[in-house]
Amino acid sequence: MYAGRADALSLAATMPGLARAARVEHTLTGAVCAALAAAPRPPGVPVFATVAGGVSRLAAAVAEASGARIRLGAPVRELTPVPGGWRVGPDTVDAVVLALPARAAARLLGVPPPLDYASVALVTLALPAPELPALSGFLVPAQEGTLVKAATFFSTKWAHLRRDDGVALVRASVGRYGEEHRLHAGDPELVRGVHSELSTLVSSRLPEPVDARVQRWGGALPQYPVGHVERVAALRATLPPTVALAGAGYDGVGIPACVRSGEAAADDVLKGLS
Ligand SMILES: Cc1cc2nc3c(=O)[nH]c(=O)nc-3n(C[C@H](O)[C@H](O)[C@H](O)COP(=O)(O)OP(=O)(O)OC[C@H]3O[C@@H](n4cnc5c(N)ncnc54)[C@H](O)[C@@H]3O)c2cc1C
After folding, report:
1. Ranges for the Amine oxidase domain (predicted)?
2. How many domains in the chain?
3. 232-273, pLDDT tens digit by residue?
4. How many other C-beta atoms are found inside a 10 Å radius of the C-beta of residue 15?
């Protein structure tokens, strides 16, 4: 999920519930059981959830509900203290929440970036009547050496993406931290590589795709190093009370964690203003 190496990432930052349990339990199995028991899934609640019509609708809905004035295509290059607030681009404001990738935020604050990011690409294939295992998808451990690090069988995972014509949508995630060179391949090469590897991984010669799409996400997945939680706390402790940091670079990569991080940052600057 992080496109990184499990042995290089901070357990406390990537799986805080498991890290807490591991401080008490004596075995990994015991810690996993304790972490699962501490956060039980209510009966009948599905493992996966998404936004009808696509996750991109979430950003539009949040923007509309906020009632905020939003300016797009306006990268901020400087954050300057002025009497009573901050100068951000052409605006003077009371307080600032930097909800940016960690490197961009660090540049504005004049501090070293607290972490690095992995680049990935998503390769989606439309396959006519493929023979797929009865799974929503799978992860591939790094030591397998494959280009594919995960696959999602969309038509199995999401009922709304099932098609009457039997065409199945399969999405592979490719690229791991430190293997950016593998993403230098062109789109057709990535599509061919993914198609061939998936056939091997599911032990079935997959039909030729009737359509394919490659979407690249450069520098998108934060790699929380060991000590990340403490490093972020130390960085936050140096910030003026009317500046806060939020987003995947600090408090967790999933959208729910990013939402919590944004809400906490807003609370922090409100406290700083009062
Ligand atoms: C391929 C992929 C699949 C994922 N799938 C899932 C999933 O299924 N479920 C899930 O929960 N999470 C998923 N995630 C993770 C999640 O989407 C991200 O971690 C989250 O969206 C990050 O949100 P953010 O607001 O921290 O950062 P971003 O969404 O990256 O927002 C940062 C914004 O800052 C802007 N910016 C940068 N520099 C400046 C500047 N100088 N001035 C002004 N603006 C600037 C950028 O343009 C960007 O809009 C996925 C991530 C990836 C890459």
Report:
1. 31-270
2. 3
3. 999 999 999 999 999 999 999 999 999 999 999 999 999 999
4. 18
Ligand 1 center from residue 221 Cα (angstroms): 8
Cβ(121) – ligand 1 distance below 6 Å = no
Q: ipTM score here?
A: 0.97
CA of 129 to the centre of ligand 1 (A): 34
Q: Do 125 and 212 have their domain in common?
A: yes
Q: Which amino acid is present at 247?
A: G
pLDDT in tens, 203-224: 999 999 999 999 999 999 999 9
- Same domain, yes or no: 240 and 107: yes
| Smallest CA separation from ligand 1 atom 46, residue | 100
Task: Kindly report the number of other CB atoms within 10 A of residue 266's CB atom.
Answer: 15
Q: Does 186 lie in the same domain as 122?
A: yes
Which residue segment(s) compose the domain that 199 sits in? Answer: 118-221
Structure tokens at 97: 């929440």
Per-residue DSSP letter, 161: G
CA 117 / ligand 1 centre spacing (Å): 12
